[in-house]
Task: structure prediction
Amino acid sequence: MNEHLRSAVNLLNLVRQETEVIGCAVSFGKDSLATLDLCWRLFRRVEAYYLFRVRGLEIVKDWAEAVKKRTGVKVRMYPHFDLCRCYNNNVLQPHFKNLRVPKIGMKDIERIFRRDAKVEWIAYGWRRNDSCSRALILKTCRGYDPKTKRIFPLRGWRRSQVYDYLRQRDIEIPPGLGRKDQGGLDFHPGALQELRDKHPADWQRWLRDFPFAEAMLLEIPTDSGGLGKQLDS
Result:
């Protein structure tokens, strides 16, 4: 067993000594799919959840169905806590006067998921080279956080090792949607372009909730005969 895989199994076994059930946060990106697969192979029961920004997208249903077909794990759907910011600040939306959405956070979603799924521990596909904030969290807890009941089995994995794991397990490599590392469906231009070009029905659903999303895909001319020249005249 490779050292990075042994490390992930050892971390998950710390939780397994306490319980035979575990939750897993999935974005349907490569890291969360690898984490889910590890949990599925080690625990008697695995529950999972996904945070959506637009409800009912067919592409998300397809991703969830693929997970259920392979592992038997049903992915529960919850609204992303980032929607509070989006609606309160009219992100890619018209300005709605006096619209105020109650603030919820990651801990609130976790609490609801734990109640619904009857789990205590939740596994995340975070890696320490994802971002500085994640690196700090993972350095502090070393991948195992009994206080928050969170476990991070891929904390020391490299990007290439995650892809190798998916290939070895014959798990379909998820689309990058314009990014090298983190996957998932959000406001990244690559993700929005994927919806517009390959999933037109979902794109219309997205525009229903965020009607100004098309602006994220506009190309601003930079040549001398483009917008810059017009502004100077």
